[in-house]
Specification:
This protein is α/β, with parallel strands linked by helices. The protein has helices spanning about 5-10, 15-30, 50-65, 80-85, 90-105, 135-145, 155-165, 190-200, 200-205, 220-235, 250-255, 270-280, 300-310, 325-330, 335-340, 370-375, 390-395; strands at about 40, 45, 75, 130, 165, 180-185, 210-215, 240, 265, 285, 290-295, 315-320, 345-350, 365, 380-385, 400. Bound molecules: FE3-S4 cluster.
């Protein structure tokens, strides 16, 4: 691979052993993909997980003196002050989150603890080369903003943040961003929840870059978020197009780069029903709690819940996961206090796939997000999946119909 002087200096250890190791790994990754050079990035997002391997690497980088040249935003772990104050975490779990926090702080990351940076805190421009990990972040950056990123892992995004470069391959090139599968959506797409269901059709859509037709002209940020998150729960998609909506798909021909689709797929309401049967516990039952915010909820969604709950009281506790800035806005607007009074908790910086939820083991939850239902299963927490308004109603009645 041809390296610039700065890149060679990094590789030779001029900027210390941490940056050297990061560059070494990146060059090896680049060579394995046939990259001819490294290119600078302007943004990064690291999907930290607050789990053993993640912490091991972050602390190793700190010990080796690494510092981020491009300060990345980071994924949620769990909110230390919130769960500690409630006495819901063990000392061991507390230490782990504290060490994760300290390691990323020393590396110079932006401690955003939010998995939807593409909506508020780290929004790329069209054509910008970035290094994003996190399942909903990569497709959002590529498809919705027209920025360019490969599907980085937490570690490769961290290395990119440290060196300020990524190897040039894959989705950084025009020709690899074109659609390969035509997906004609005939299902009703009435609300943001339908995009969760569409994203869960990965098995039927198959491997490649989907080009969706049949979708409405106006698609909310929340719907785009849901689509990307679930495409990467049911499959692996770094990029998609929506004809007439996303920036690299003004028409079918451009979306496919003038080529014929390799495959054509139709998605109907029956597909959504089949997917739901596969991923959700059966309904018509009492539930123990309701959880939203995987990926993190927006201020609009918090406001929507607040409006729907006016004058009502919850029978079951509701957890709404979001970023610290949405939490702060909700506090300033008085939404947070009112929801808290009803039994709905807006919790910042927290992911459902974290040990802070151990107290829910064996319980039945209700959520609108298949991804939220998917990860906590390994912690013995199972979910019914329904649309947002059905979930809000169920929190009031205690039962899902
Ligand atoms: Fe975000 Fe965690 Fe869900 S990182 S998408 S809240 S699994």
């Amino acid at each position: 691979m041809k390296l610039t002087k700065d890149q060679q200096d990094l590789l030779d250890g001029k900027y210390g052993p941490g940056a050297q190791l990061a560059m070494k790994v990146q060059v090896a990754v680049g060579e394995s993909f046939g990259a001819e050079r490294m290119v600078p990035i302007t943004r990064a997002h690291v999907a930290l997980s607050n789990q053993d391997a993640d912490l091991w690497l972050a602390e190793k980088m700190v010990d080796m003196g690494a510092k981020c040249r491009i300060a990345p935003t980071v994924n949620p772990g769990w909110c230390l002050p919130y769960f500690e104050a409630k006495g819901l975490v063990s000392e061991e779990d507390y230490k782990m989150m504290e060490r994760t926090h300290n390691a990323y702080k020393k590396l110079g990351a932006v401690l955003s603890y939010n998995c939807t940076p593409y909506i508020d805190t780290n929004v790329p421009n069209f054509g910008e080369v970035v290094a994003y990990s996190e399942s909903s972040a990569t497709p959002y950056a590529n498809a919705v903003w027209g920025a360019r990123t490969n599907r980085e892992g937490a570690n490769s995004a961290l290395f990119a943040s440290i060196t300020g470069y990524v190897p040039e391959y894959g989705l950084l090139f025009d020709e690899n961003r074109k659609g390969t599968i035509l997906v004609d959506v005939q299902a009703d797409m009435d609300n943001d929840y339908c995009y969760h269901m569409l994203g869960m059709c990965g098995k039927k859509i198959g491997h490649g870059i989907p080009v969706f037709t049949g979708l409405p002209k106006h698609i909310s940020p929340e719907a785009f978020r849901n689509l990307g998150a679930q495409l990467n729960t049911s499959g692996a998609y770094d990029m998609y197009h929506i004809v007439g909506v996303t920036p690299e798909a003004p028409d079918l021909e451009t979306a496919f780069g003038g080529k014929e689709p390799e495959r054509k797929v139709t998605i109907t309401n029956e597909d959504f029903e089949e997917v739901l049967k596969e991923i959700s516990l059966e309904g018509n039952r009492e539930i123990d709690f309701v959880m939203f915010g995987c990926p993190h909820f927006t201020l609009n969604e918090c406001k929507h819940i607040h409006e729907r709950l006016q004058g009502r009281k919850l029978k079951k506790e509701m957890y709404i996961l979001t970023s610290s800035h949405v939490k702060h806005m909700a506090e300033l607007m008085g939404i947070d206090e009112e929801l808290e009074g009803l039994g709905a908790h807006i919790i910042p910086s927290t992911c459902p796939d974290q040990p802070c939820w151990k107290f829910l083991k064996g319980k039945i939850g209700l959520t609108e997000s298949p991804k939220c239902a998917y990860y906590p299963q390994r912690r013995g927490i199972n979910f019914v999946i329904r649309d947002l308004d059905t979930c809000i109603e169920a929190a009031v009645t205690g039962e899902v119909k």
